[in-house]
Amino acid sequence: MGTHTILIVEDEAIIAAAESQMLRQRGYGVTIARSGEAAVAAIRSRGEEIDLILMDINLGRGMDGAEAAREILRERDIPIVFVSSLAEEDIAARTRGIAAARHVAKNGGDEALLASVEEALRRRAGQPEIPALRA
Fold it and tell me: What is the C-alpha to C-alpha distance for residues 29 and 23, in angstroms, rounded to an integer?
């Protein structure tokens, strides 16, 4: 942790600010894009600096998160974690075919989001997954 930069793609400024603050408090660098088109542009201009993308699926007008992810992945292999308030089935349907896409609920809380980020970064580094604790 601490040496990674995350691109947050979120059209709602309050949500982007809250996610950014939480991640920065935990030592991550953060860049924010407010649209799918801005996310693609950020990867094209600063892609090597970005280690992971947190992407909302619904981004208002223009390119949605799934379209932006497909465009980005055509150019660069980078982990993407979709953050959405959609039902799991809807997320799966919209992100079908996007390699290694992970999903986390917007209302899942900071710890769920952070766990998804850390897991995606571990996978990217080739480290094994941490097994779930059993009760």
Answer: 8
pLDDT digits (tens, 9 = 90+) for 41-92: 999 998 789 999 999 988 988 898 889 999 999 988 899 998 877 566 666 6
pLDDT at 26 over 50: yes
Q: What's the mean per-residue pLDDT of the chain?
A: 82
Phi (first) and psi of residue 30, to 5 degrees = -135, 140
The residue ranking higher by pLDDT, 131 or 104, is 104
Give the Å distances, CA to CA, from 66 to 24, 27, 109, 128. 25, 27, 22, 27
d(CA 48, CA 73): 13
Query: Quick one: tokens of 12?
Result: 């709602």
DSSP-assigned letters across all residues of 89-129: HHHHHHHTT-TT-EEEEGGG-HHHHHHHHHHHHHHHTTPPP
Q: Where are the domains of the chain?
A: 1-9+21-57
* Largest separation between any pair of C-alpha atoms in the chain: 46
- Output the six-digit token pair for 73: 């992945």
Give the pairing of strands 29-33 and 5-9: parallel
